[in-house]
Amino acid sequence: MNLKVARLLLIPALAVFLLASCGEDAQPIELDAALDAGMEEELLALANNRDAWFLASDITTEALEGLYGSWSVICRSEVSLGDYKDAVYEGVRPWVLGMLEMDLAVAQKANRYYKIESWRPPWALVEQIWKLGDKIVLGPERQLYLIESGAWRYHDC
Description:
Blueprint: H1 3-22, H2 37-54, H3 61-69, H4 73-76, H5 81-100, H6 104-108, E1 111-120, E2 123-132, E3 135-148, E4 151-154
Antiparallel strand pairs: 1-2, 2-3, 3-4
Helix pairs in contact: 1-5, 2-3
């Protein structure tokens, strides 16, 4: 397996470990500066779009390019679009669905909720929760975003 792809596959496991190690006593960082409504709306829309692209039934060019393009330039600097596709759709997505013990069609029905937990320019921490009815099936998870060249990007490297 390509080293770059192996690194991508380890990212979700590391994120789960780090989030679990924070425990219930972890406190969010206080907001440093006001995040204007437009920037907040863009960030929350991106978080939702990333999950929609991740859960797409058909791996379209739009879904793949949207997911890859919203990923931090820093993270993707050494990973080609083809390697990213293989890692996400053939590695990470089956792993996440297996962890959730659900198939793709069920995961697609989940209501997804996002809120900004903290903002320290250029970094924003977004809380993510997926629910089926009243049951939480994923989360709360935290996602790290940053502003690169005036646009929000997901940062996981």
